[in-house]
Design goal:
The chain is 45% helix and 19% strand. The protein starts with a strand and ends in a 10-residue tail after the last strand.
Length: 202
């Protein structure tokens, strides 16, 4: 089954995991502006370009393939690099927005839909990196970069630090517009087995 939905609807209320068999996070980040940009840099540049020129159509996020394990529980088969980066990006964005002001009711719903609802994490990466992902990216309780056991953990930390730095001098208008762009971005998803539960937009 193939459906065209928004990022918000794709994530909302679901539990999405990456199995170790799918491989870990592989996108690199370049902090030196004089060097060739990496995947994470291009991810942000594309969004900034879209917002700058105010495209009339929704931003297109690409294709994702999931396998449904049970109701609202999915494993990522294709698109995990983009999805992992999206969650890292959104977590950094929400963190910066919260440092400026209290989230609106709609923003709180988006946070719960796409990042974390109470103790339930919407997205989980491979087992061996997932605790680091929760502590450094989602809950932001870990600040130290010591003890990163895998290259993929280093990439996760670098991506989060890159987005955090990119947002450090951005104002509320920029952040709110970026949140709207990503949450309402269009994506095509395919589900193996059962039908995905498609919820209404907020």
């Amino acid at each position: 089954m193939e459906v065209n939905i928004t990022v918000n609807i794709m994530l909302a209320g679901n539990k999405i995991i990456v199995l170790s068999s799918q491989g870990a996070y592989s996108w690199e980040t370049e902090f030196d502006k004089s060097k060739t940009k990496k995947h994470v840099n291009v991810f942000l540049l594309d969004l900034e370009y879209y917002n700058k020129y105010s495209a009339s159509t929704p931003y297109y996020f690409g294709h994702f393939l999931f396998e449904e394990k049970s109701e609202s529980h999915f494993e990522v088969i294709e698109g995990q690099q983009k999805l992992t980066t999206t969650v890292i990006f959104l977590s950094a964005l929400f963190s910066k927005l919260k440092s400026i002001r209290t989230l609106t009711e709609n923003e709180e719903v988006l946070f719960e839909n796409m990042i974390k609802r109470k103790s339930n994490y919407i997205f989980s990466t491979v087992d061996y990196d997932n605790q680091l992902f929760k502590d450094y990216v989602i809950d932001q309780t870990k600040k130290s970069k010591n003890g990163l056991e895998t290259e993929s953990a280093r990439r996760i930390v670098n991506a989060f630090d890159f987005f955090t730095k990119a947002f450090s001098d951005k104002d509320e208008v920029f952040l709110s517009k970026m949140l709207k762009t990503v949450s309402k971005a269009s994506c095509i998803i395919n589900i193996k087995s059962k039908k995905i539960t498609v919820k209404s937009e907020i």
